[in-house]
Design goal:
Rossmann fold; four-stranded parallel beta sheet; 23 helices; about 50% helix
Length: about 400
């Protein structure tokens, strides 16, 4: 399939990326079998091949409207299609570029724009978001059911170790995670401390939330600040940049595309990405010394799409936890998305809820004592209806050393 981008993108690096992605597609349709939304609806436009056609039309200047936006909105951006594609089509790169074109050509109704603005506003203000979480928990009885399941119980994060090791790494604090689940970062710091690595927290968002909610300029501004901080830390002897929310890590890996037409920041972003580590990549090389065996070893591990369909870390968490004495149970159809997908569960609740129901059924089939995942969004989404506790996998390691 060939395309020629027109309009303001013509001649840019982003246009070259989009043209290359479209050109790699051979229309075989193998992607549809892996796509969660196509499996739910059977509609060609709810699968990657149909969406590629819609994006191609938009990039070539064809009229686009609510129908195009409707089917693109339904995409989880889970990237399962990319793992199934025999031609190596990097669908998510095309989607990221095309969505901005569609947003400009077919503006949303005012109520949708306001809702997206509100989510972006809060994501950029973790302290305000944390205060709202506290208020919402206290007044849960008055909170609409659609929002109540976004209010996980508060937990004491525990102590953060003092910096004492020669090996130093920096961890991205995150926005929603820093507000709703500070225990994840604190547990990561304790586990790394036990493995001989000191973690320094860098507060703030990665930019994914505003980017995926049609504010690319805001996303770039956020990313620039983080890139500058991370680049300076690397120059100062920091060994790696750690991100323990796999959804954030997936967006960080795409920072070079975000600055495709800004060579200086593109190169700095590439340097950061070259030093990016998921905690499991560090710990499988230098596992921490544990103090005890698991009290409830029978568990289920949920590998988020952002662990499976990009960095190639499928099964890495499961293998590490098994090495430490846990007993991960088999999970049927493990590659299917749970339906969280960042803010997707807020704006596409019917699809998100159906996917969550199937995922929880698969995860609990082996009667685990707990479910462990690797992403803040998946944790919040699954926790809302899971019959067993859902936690970040780093907490399972922290349980054995504390």
């Amino acid at each position: 399939m060939r395309t020629e981008v027109v309009g303001s993108l013509r001649g840019t690096a982003a246009a070259a990326i989009a043209e290359g992605v479209v050109g790699a597609c051979v229309h075989c349709g193998m992607c549809n079998s892996a796509c969660p939304t196509y499996r739910l609806t059977g509609d060609e436009l709810d699968g990657p091949r149909g969406r590629i056609y819609l994006l191609k039309q938009a990039l070539e200047g064809e009229p686009v409207g609510a129908l195009t936006r409707h089917h693109l909105d339904r995409c989880l951006e889970c990237r399962a299609c990319e793992t199934a594609c025999p031609s190596g089509v990097e669908y998510h790169r095309l989607l990221d570029i095309g969505r901005s074109v569609v947003a400009e050509a077919a503006p949303r109704p005012s109520d949708q724009r306001r809702a997206r603005w509100a989510v972006r506003f809060l994501a950029a203000r973790p302290l305000l978001l944390a205060a709202l979480y506290t208020l919402g928990r206290a007044l849960r009885f008055a909170v609409p059911a659609s929002l109540a399941d976004k209010l996980p119980p508060a937990r004491n994060p525990g102590a953060w170790p003092t910096t004492r090791h020669a090996r130093r790494m920096m961890i991205l604090g995150g926005c929603v995670q820093r507000a709703a689940a500070r225990q994840f970062n604190a547990a990561t710091a304790r586990v790394f401390d036990r493995a001989g690595v000191s973690l320094v927290e860098r507060a703030g968002c990665c930019g994914a939330v505003p980017f995926h909610l049609e504010a690319p300029d805001q996303a770039r501004a956020i990313a620039r600040r983080q890139i500058d901080a991370f680049d300076a830390a690397l120059s100062g002897g920091c060994e790696a940049i750690v991100v323990n929310a796999s959804g954030c890590a997936a967006f960080v890996r795409d920072w070079p595309d975000l600055f495709a037409d800004e060579p200086d920041y593109r190169e700095k972003a590439r340097r950061v990405v070259a030093h990016l580590k998921d905690p499991v990549e560090v710990l499988r090389q230098t596992p921490p010394a544990t103090a005890r065996a698991p009290a409830a070893p029978r568990i289920a591990v949920h590998d988020p799409c952002t662990m499976r369909n990009g960095p190639g870390l499928t099964g890495a968490v499961e293998a590490l936890l098994a090495r430490l004495g846990y007993e991960p149970q088999p999970v049927a159809d493990a590659g299917q998305c749970c339906g969280s997908a960042g803010a997707y569960s807020l704006f596409q609740p019917k699809f998100a809820d159906r996917l969550r129901e199937d995922k929880i059924a698969a995860l609990t089939a082996g009667e685990p004592a707990a479910i462990f995942t690797a992403n803040i969004g998946c944790w919040m989404h699954l926790s809302a209806t899971s019959p067993v506790p859902v936690r970040h996998w780093i907490e399972a390691v922290d349980d054995l050393i504390s």
